[in-house]
Amino acid sequence: MHFDTVLVTTDLSEDSFEAFDFAAYQAKTENSRVVLLYTTNSWEIPPALARHIPNSETLQTYQDDLKVELNDKLSVIAQERFHGVKVDTMVVISSRPASEEIVSVADKINASLIVIASHGRGAVGQMFLGSVVDKVIKLASCPVLVIPRKTN
Fold first, then answer.
1. Residue 112 phi/psi, 5° resolution?
2. SS3 string of the chain?
3. How many whole angstroms separate alpha carbon 76 and alpha carbon 73?
4. How far lies 87's CA from each of 6, 97, 130, in Å?
5. pLDDT at 84
6. CATH number of the domain at 5-147, please?
């Protein structure tokens, strides 16, 4: 099966990097387009900083700066981990859950596959918090490949 556009998600953890190997292989063997996506919540502003934000314009500047910083970080990671494969990077800062943003981006870029790493969160964590992976699988209109966590 050929996948024209592969969306790879990351939360910048080592576990999430497990998905990169498959995406790099897919890009090299099938000439697939790879998009590396990082999503974060707009409300994840450190409380100590939030008290000192006088207006929404300052908040927007902070988010814009954060987006540039994260995009630069993604570009470096893509160069290091994808070994010469061209990778487009995207950073989304939103108040929506990560699962919804991942699916929304997949739809916008016409992804034919979403690659996401599992994080091996325990049963209690999944019961109370839910799983981004589970929600992406339920919401996505394209196949989702879940890369399991490596065991040592």
1. -100, -5
2. CCCCEEEEEECCCCHHHHHHHHHHHHHHHHCCEEEEEEEEECCCCCHHHHCCCCCHHHHHHHHHHHHHHHHHHHHHHHHHHCCCCCEEEEEEEECCCHHHHHHHHHHHCCCCEEEEECCCCCHHHHHHHCCHHHHHHHHCCCCEEEECCCCC
3. 5
4. 10, 24, 30
5. 78
6. 3.40.50.620
Residues of the chain below pLDDT 50:
122, 124-129
pLDDT at 150: 72
**Predicted model pTM:** 0.83
* Domain regions of the chain by residue span: 5-147
Produce one character per residue of 91-117: b if its CB has 16 or more CB atoms within 10 Å, e if not: bbbeeeebbebbbebbeebebbbbbbb
